[in-house]
Design a protein that fits this description.
By secondary structure, the protein is α/β, with parallel strands linked by helices. It contains nine helices and twelve strands.
C-alpha cells in the first residue's frame, strides 16, 4: 500500500507558497503523493486558488511524490484543455502526474456559473470528455463528433512522458454501479460510500472487497485483463501520535486489496498547525 495526503485548494491552502512548503514536508516525511482538491464554490467567505497552478508549485517543489487533482470535474471543463494541462504537468513533474476525474460536486458549482447541473447530462459529458482526453494524448490527428463536443482534424503534442498514457482514476460512489463500470475501463478508482441521506462516507474493508469484485467483473466485460494494475484509493484519517492505532485503522484496507491510503487534510479536522503536524508525522507504518 502507498500513502498520500490530499489538501484543499481554498482557505489557508489557497496560498501557493504554503502549498509548496506542505508538499516538501510531505515528501520529506515519506508520503508517496500529494493530491489537490478541485473546487470553485464549495464554501463561502474563503479564498480559492486554481488547483492546476497549485499542482505546478508541487511539481517544482518536489522530486519524488506523485501529484494530481482528486478529483477534477471534467464536465465543467474543456476536455482538450484538461488534456493539455495534464501533459504539461506530466512533463513538469518528470512523469509523476495522475489525473483524477469525476462528475463534480456540489451541483451549485455548475449551476451558479451557468454550467449544466443535471447529473445524467454531466455523466454523458464525462464519458465523451474522457474519450477526447485519451485521443489527445496519442499525439495523432483525430476528429470527434459527439452529442456534447465536436473536434475536427486536431492534433495535440507533445505526448505524455508516461506511456501508454497518464494514469486516470475515477471518483465513484458505492454501491451505484455505473461509476464503477466507467472506472473499470481506466486505471483506478476513488470510491466513497453513498449514505441513504445523500451524504458520503469512507468505505469499510468489506466494501473494498465488494468494489474489487465488481471492478474485476466490469474489466472482464470491457475486455481488459483482470491482471492489469488497478488502483483503489481509500480516504480517511489516522492519528499523528499513535502509530499502532494508525496501522490498525489502515491495515484492514490493505488486506482487503486497497492500494492507496490518502490522509484527509481538512480544515474541519483541525487547525492548520494540527494538519501540518499530521503531515510531518508521516504515513502509517504497516
Amino acid at each position: 500500500m502507498q500513502f498520500s495526503i490530499d489538501i484543499p485548494n481554498f482557505g489557508a491552502f489557497a496560498d501557493p507558497h504554503l502549498t509548496a512548503d506542505v508538499a516538501r514536508d510531505a515528501e520529506a516525511a515519506g508520503w508517496d503523493a500529494v493530491w489537490v482538491w478541485d473546487h470553485t464554490l464549495r464554501d463561502r467567505g474563503v479564498p480559492y486558488s486554481d488547483p492546476w497552478i497549485l499542482l505546478a508549485t508541487i511539481a517544482l517543489a518536489t522530486t519524488r511524490v506523485r501529484l494530481g487533482p482528486m478529483v477534477t470535474p471534467l464536465p465543467g471543463r474543456r476536455p482538450w484543455s484538461v488534456a493539455r494541462e495534464a501533459v504539461t504537468l506530466d512533463h513538469l513533474s518528470g512523469g509523476r502526474f495522475t489525473l483524477g476525474i469525476g462528475l463534480g460536486a456540489p451541483a451549485r458549482e455548475f449551476s451558479a456559473v451557468g454550467e449544466e447541473a443535471d447529473p445524467k447530462i454531466r455523466a454523458a459529458k464525462l464519458d465523451e470528455g474522457l474519450a477526447i482526453v485519451a485521443q489527445c494524448w496519442t499525439g495523432e490527428t483525430f476528429s470527434f463528433h459527439g452529442q456534447h463536443y465536436r473536434l475536427d482534424d486536431v492534433e495535440f503534442l507533445p505526448r505524455p512522458l508516461q506511456q501508454p498514457r497518464i494514469p486516470v482514476w475515477l471518483g465513484a460512489t458505492w454501491p451505484v454501479p455505473a461509476p464503477f463500470r466507467r472506472a473499470a475501463r481506466w486505471d483506478g478508482v476513488w470510491p466513497l460510500r453513498r449514505n441513504p441521506d445523500g451524504t458520503t462516507a469512507t468505505l469499510t474493508p468489506e466494501d473494498v472487497r465488494d468494489v474489487l469484485q465488481a471492478i474485476a467483473k466490469d474489466r472482464a466485460a470491457a475486455g481488459r485483463p483482470v491482471t492489469d494494475p488497478f488502483d483503489v484509493l481509500i480516504h480517511g484519517t489516522t492519528p499523528a501520535d499513535d502509530p499502532a492505532e494508525a496501522a490498525a485503522i489502515v491495515r484492514p484496507y490493505a488486506e482487503a486489496g486497497a492500494t492507496w491510503w490518502t490522509e484527509r487534510i481538512n480544515p474541519s479536522r483541525g487547525s492548520l498547525d494540527d494538519m501540518r503536524r499530521r503531515i510531518t508525522a508521516g504515513p502509517p507504518r504497516l
